[in-house]
Amino acid sequence: MDTVSSSHLRIDTPVGPLLISGTDTHISGINFLDEDSSEAFPPPSALVQECARQLREYFAGERKAFELPIAQPGTDFQQGVWAQLLTIPYGQTISYQALARRIHNPKSIRAVGTTNGKNNIAIIVPCHRVIGSDGSLTGYAGGLWRKRWLLDHEQGDLFMIK
Hints:
This protein has 162 residues and is of the alpha+beta class. It has helices at residues 46-59, 76-85, 96-102, 109-117, 144-154; strands at 7-11, 18-22, 27-32, 94-95, 130-131. The strands form two sheets. The protein has a three-stranded antiparallel sheet, covered by helices on one side. Helix 3 (96-102) packs across helix 4.
């Protein structure tokens, strides 16, 4: 049986430190770190390093789409929701209700919200682009301040220092 070794890289960003996880074949996690960790990791895979480069470009306002293979475990329902998140254009938002309709299950609004919260590949799988039907910011595993920052960044409302 082949074992795939996972690699990790911590990077600093305007929304705090991120931990990128992946292998040689796919990115499996981009998670916000609320504490500054000095944990040392072995050198990251080339793909994890490429992910860090693309994220830095995103934060610098130079990238609007990611070109990375991604994979995260989940049910068929979760995979369907995450696939729909990838179709939300940069700088745009949709409601949880609209997302539920997109997966042809308009009564699944709560399940869609729960699935958003279980997304392990923040920013690249843009769950921050999903908002309440009334336009309010609701729920974000990384914290509402990060969601606001990411939306402002994508909509050009922040002054970006390069």
